Amino acid sequence: MKEAPHVYAQELGIDSESLAREIRRLDALYSTATDTESAIAKTRLHNLADAQNRAGPEVCRLIARIEAADETSDLQPFLENLKDHLSKWRTD
Hints:
With 92 residues, the protein is an all-alpha fold.
């Protein structure tokens, strides 16, 4: 999201510079956080969602849709594995 805010901004209903600015703000805010990495990520997500007047799960779904559609996404191996398991489940 940080590398290509223009891809995500449209789905979030904001301009890419505003999204980039918000990501930079959150980066600065949490750069010295001492909590676990996953807790920091969750808090950052909820702060990003709050800044857009959205719920965390809604933002997650929007991001997941974008990532799922991108064949170069890091999410692709997971999606392929999931598709394989679903196909096997349907045929068993």
